[in-house]
Design brief:
This protein is of the alpha/beta class. It has helices at residues 17-25, 29-47, 57-60, 62-67, 72-81, 89-99, 110-120, 141-154, 174-190, 197-202, 209-222, 239-247, 259-264, 275-294, 320-335, 337-340; strands spanning 3-6, 102-109, 127-130, 229-233, 251-255, 267-271, 304-305, 310-314. The protein is globular, with a radius of gyration of 20 Å.
Length: 343
């Protein structure tokens, strides 16, 4: 039995719900989130901080959302009112579910995934996402003032950047190193002493290794094997799951992915709608990974053009740079520059 598993934001929707919540509640919230997202990538990918996983930005921003007035009801209402689907997504999910079991594994907060399931008709019980009940956490007024001041400081920090092979602070620019050192003090010393730090300790985003664990849980439920899985992802939070599925003989697909997803996947798809995913999933349901790969150009020989708005091809050392460039271009066109630039 074949099994289809997909990320949500990117393959199904244009949203980055956490960024949009930050922009809604926090002054200059888009910049605020972008700085913390780059810090998240640094912690997960470069420093490899113990106990930290890609996507944990979703717990780092929660004290600040609370400080600027976010509530469970507010997050739920905002999420429902701001669903932006990739063209064709509901039909793609419907057609795939006719052929094989389908699951969504998303780092997104549960209120957003619930809203998306209502819009698309996808069963919420077939999803994995980040549980959140923000109202249960108390925030003293003194801590709220300190967090609002810290948010103002964060928006003026540079985006942290690094080169290939970076492993720590020594590989950053002076400004990047100072930003990381300040964020280290803020989160792991100052906020760690606050009462609101409970929300950081207790909320567990479904990203990185947690997405890989969710895939294993799906296989336990379905009594399947990695070779039975088609996994679609687009970002650093999917990297561990993509690599695991690829190594297990399944079909690891990057859809309009960033460099992290491209490096972890076996096949790259780019498109302005989900039609290409529908076609690949249909072929996978019939012939598995072997069936899909047999229809692709020979390794290193480029891509199949499916009209002007979609391409597919195998990711090899030779094609990797081309796919990163092409995929990033589609990613920004479809989801916008701000979201498309995130890790």
């Amino acid at each position: 039995m074949r099994i289809f598993i997909t990320d949500c934001e990117g393959p199904i929707s244009k949203n980055d719900n956490a960024l949009e919540l930050a922009a809604h509640y926090v002054p200059q919230g888009e910049r605020f989130f972008s700085v913390l997202s780059a810090y998240d990538d640094y912690l997960a990918y470069v420093e490899k901080r113990a106990g930290y996983k890609a996507g944990d930005t979703l717990r780092l921003i929660l004290p600040f959302l609370k400080a600027f007035g976010a509530t469970d009801k507010g997050i739920e209402e905002f999420s429902k009112e701001n669903i932006l689907l990739i063209a064709g997504a509901p039909e793609t999910l419907r057609l795939i579910r006719k052929r094989m079991p389908a699951y969504i594994i998303s780092t997104s907060y549960a209120p957003y995934i619930q809203a998306l399931c209502e819009v698309t008709g996808f069963p919420f019980e077939a999803t994995y996402c980040t549980a959140l009940t923000l109202d249960q956490y108390d925030l003293p007024k003194k801590e709220a003032r300190a967090l609002r001041a810290a948010a103002s400081e964060i928006v003026h920090m540079p985006l942290i950047e690094w080169g290939e092979g970076a492993t720590g602070l020594a590989d950053l620019s002076d400004s990047g190193r100072k930003a990381v050192e300040r964020l280290h003090r803020l989160f792991w010393k100052e906020i760690a002493q606050m009462q609101i730090n409970r929300v950081i300790e207790e909320v567990d985003p479904i990203g990185g290794a947690a997405k890989a664990a969710a895939v294993r849980d799906v296989l336990k439920k379905t009594k399947g094997d990695f070779s039975d899985v088609m996994y679609v992802g687009d970002s650093i939070t999917d990297l561990a799951a993509l690599e695991m599925v690829k190594q297990g003989g399944g079909l690891a697909v990057s859809f309009n992915g960033n460099a992290y997803a491209i490096q972890g996947a076996k096949v790259a798809c780019v498109g302005k709608d989900t039609g290409i995913i529908t076609r690949v999933a249909a072929r996978f349901a019939e012939g598995g990974t072997t069936g899909v790969m047999a229809e692709l150009p020979r390794a290193g020989k480029g891509a199949s053009h499916l009209g002007s708005d979609a391409e597919i091809g195998e990711i090899t050392p030779e094609t990797l740079p081309r796919w990163i460039e092409q995929s990033q271009q589609f990613r920004k066109e479809v989801r916008g520059v701000s979201i498309g630039s995130l890790g």
